[in-house]
């Protein structure tokens, strides 16, 4: 009886550790998306383009969360990359990286306003 309880507690502990990553993804998305929006606001890009880039980053984070949740519920470790779900991670990373690259590139290309 005690061995069954101990085994059950070990499974719960592994589940809790696996859920940490799934929990961290949307929590950090709030911070990253806010920084991205701030960076885009200083980039000089048209407002509509800024909104589209933030929306693309939201899609990337949703994809990352979906892959992480799928892996967690399947009992796979978040970073065990020997699975086909690595493609999901890569696609989500591309959706996240594209707006950041666009924001940084636009910010560096922006011509400084002349000082009076």
Blueprint (SSEs and pairs):
Layout: H1 2-41, H2 47-73, H3 86-109
Describe the structure.
There is one protein chain. This protein is mostly helical and 116 residues long. Helix content is 78%, strand content 0%. The protein contains three helices and no strands. The N and C termini lie far apart (81 Å). 16% of the residues are buried. The model has no long low-confidence stretch (mean pLDDT 80).
Please, how many domains? 1
The Cα radius of gyration reads 20 Å
**How confident is the prediction overall: mean pLDDT?**
80
Question: Any idea what the shape is?
Answer: elongated
Largest sheet descriptor: none
Helical segment count: 3
Q: What order do the SSEs take from the amino end to the carboxyl end, as H and E?
A: HHH
The portion of residues assigned to helices is over 70%
Q: How many strands appear in the DSSP assignment?
A: 0
Q: How far do the termini sit from each other?
A: 81 Å
Q: Structural class of the secondary elements?
A: mainly alpha
Low-confidence stretches: none
Approximate strand percentage: under 5%
Brief synopsis:
The chain is an all-alpha fold.
């Amino acid at each position: 009886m005690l061995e069954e309880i101990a085994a059950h507690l070990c499974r719960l502990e592994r589940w809790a550790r696996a859920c940490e990553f799934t929990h961290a993804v949307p929590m950090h998305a709030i911070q990253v998306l806010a920084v991205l929006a701030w960076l885009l606001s200083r980039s000089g890009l048209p407002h509509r383009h800024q909104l589209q880039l933030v929306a693309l980053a939201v899609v990337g984070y949703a994809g990352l969360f979906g892959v992480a949740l799928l892996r967690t519920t399947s009992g796979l470790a978040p970073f065990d990359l020997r699975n086909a779900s690595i493609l999901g991670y890569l696609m989500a990373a591309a959706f996240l990286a594209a707006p950041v690259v666009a924001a940084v590139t636009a910010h560096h290309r922006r011509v400084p306003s002349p000082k009076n």
